[in-house]
Design goal:
alpha+beta; 2 domains; 4-stranded antiparallel beta sheet; 40% helix
Length: 254
């Protein structure tokens, strides 16, 4: 990839599976897995050039992107894309349901509109926990850095990507609202991380009554509420708050 000009400006490599090139006006990403890969960019000429160079050196078949490593990708007319794992999530849930005894406990980062439709007909009990988005961003940054040592990005750059909806598991506010608008459902319990931290026992009792079972409480991680104040700059806090106000207004969130 370096031989054809990818990565001359800013390169990030992970076991030889990903190349990134960035300029002020151009961004090009070429992740690959075994013998499959994607060429992603904001410039059609750059994308065509990479594919052309690869086809000259290797036996490469260029196809329309629809699914990659379990991720389904939809492209809209305005150039934006929507990435989800609905089919993969259904497959995993089916596998777990076939091997785990009932009652089963599963966790997911999916918004309500990407959950298997059977959840709404069978009326599986759901507990959704939301958290101050600024604390979420800080937690996500540390998780990414600890989980993926090759993840080389500054905290500020990640926060910028977060409140511009450029990260996975987003957009954040649309995710939260997808559950909040279903608050009337009796098989859905809405909670916040803040209330869990402030009054853990009372929340545990709510969960116990909701599930109709006895819970054994186990604590882990400090999960400090408002910990973002120690790590976010004033500019980032301001941008997060403005982003939140804008989204709450557009989504009619309380």
């Amino acid at each position: 990839m370096v031989a054809i000009g990818i990565g001359n400006i800013d390169i990030l490599s992970y076991d030889g599976t990903e190349w990134i090139e960035r300029t002020l006006s151009n961004a090009l990403y070429v992740p690959k897995f075994v013998d499959d890969g994607i060429v992603i960019g904001n410039n059609e000429e750059s994308i065509d050039s990479v594919i052309s160079h690869l086809q000259k050196k290797f036996e490469v078949k260029a196809m329309k992107l629809g699914c990659f490593l379990g991720m389904e990708i939809k492209k809209f007319g305005d150039g934006s894309i929507f990435v989800h794992q609905s089919a993969y999530a259904r497959k995993v849930l089916q596998m777990q349901c076939n091997t785990l005894p009932s009652p089963r406990l599963m966790k997911s980062h999916l918004p309500a509109y990407l959950l298997p439709k059977e959840i709404w007909t069978v009326r599986t009990k759901l507990i959704h926990i939301s958290r101050d988005v600024k604390d979420v961003a800080v937690s996500f940054y540390h998780y990414a850095c600890n989980r993926y040592p090759f993840y080389k990005v500054s905290a500020h750059d990640l926060f910028h990507s977060f409140y511009n909806d450029y990260i996975v598991f987003g957009p954040y506010h649309q995710h939260v609202q997808s559950y909040r608008q279903l608050h009337h459902l009796d098989h859905l319990l809405l909670m916040t991380y803040e209330e869990l931290s402030e009054n853990t026992l009372a929340c545990a009792k709510r969960v116990s009554e909701f599930l109709g079972c006895t819970l054994h409480i186990q604590f882990c991680r400090k999960g400090k509420v408002g910990g973002y104040r120690d790590e976010l700059s004033e500019e980032d806090v301001k941008n997060f708050d403005e982003w939140t106000r804008r989204n709450k207004k557009e989504l009619a969130m309380e």
